[in-house]
């Protein structure tokens, strides 16, 4: 190996190191700028991306309240369809959504099952499509709708049908 070859290799290593260090520095600077920028205003408080990331991480460990699930499903499925699924009436659904009353164990289980199925399909479809899927006949459920099957406590079958739908089957 000649001196020129050694110098060229050393030059390439130095250049690569400088480029890596420069890239890393730029990434850190960009990341800190992004995290410091306000993301949105929530209840009078400006939330940064870093705040949102920390909140979402802590939300993974916090259980979702039945009232929150009821509000979400009422908004996306409609109160009447949700009342049909959990075998209750619309006024009771409204009370659960406001947090005035808590659902009984059987009703809460149906709410949580419905929420799980909704989330499974909402990963790939719009909320309106998910609502239509809940109401439509499904050959994997013996031509019953997923809403009917959930009302009959057939959550495992409905979840399997939802997964098949997501996978295109």
Question: What descriptors fit this protein?
Answer:
single chain; about 170 residues; mainly alpha; two-stranded antiparallel ribbon; 9 helices; 2 strands
Structural class: mainly alpha
Shape: globular
Kindly state the percentage of residues in helix: over 70%
For the biggest β-sheet, the strand order reads: 1-2
Count of helical segments? 9
Distance between the termini: 62 Å
Q: Which radius of gyration do the C-alpha atoms yield?
A: 26 Å
Q: How would you sum up the major sheet? A: 2 strands, antiparallel
Residue stretches low in confidence (pLDDT < 50, at least 5 long) are 30-50
How much β-strand is present in the residues? 5-15%
Quaternary form: single chain
Rounded mean pLDDT is 78
Number of strands: 2
Q: SSE order, as H and E?
A: HEEHHHHHHHH
């Amino acid at each position: 190996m000649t001196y020129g070859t050694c110098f060229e290799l050393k030059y390439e290593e130095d250049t690569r190191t400088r480029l890596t260090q420069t890239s890393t520095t730029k990434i850190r600077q960009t990341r800190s700028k992004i995290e410091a920028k306000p993301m949105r205003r929530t209840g009078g408080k400006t939330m940064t991306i870093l705040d949102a990331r920390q909140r979402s991480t802590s939300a993974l460990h916090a259980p979702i309240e039945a009232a929150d699930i009821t509000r979400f499903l009422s908004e996306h499925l409609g109160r009447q369809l949700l009342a049909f699924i959990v075998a209750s009436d619309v006024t009771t659904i409204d009370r659960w959504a406001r947090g005035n009353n808590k659902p009984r164990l059987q009703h809460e289980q149906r709410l949580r099952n419905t929420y799980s199925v909704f989330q499974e399909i909402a990963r790939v479809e719009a909320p309106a499509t998910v609502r239509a899927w809940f109401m439509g006949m499904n050959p994997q459920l013996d031509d019953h709708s997923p809403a009917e099957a959930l009302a009959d406590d057939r959550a495992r079958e409905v979840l399997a049908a939802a997964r098949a739908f997501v996978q295109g089957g």
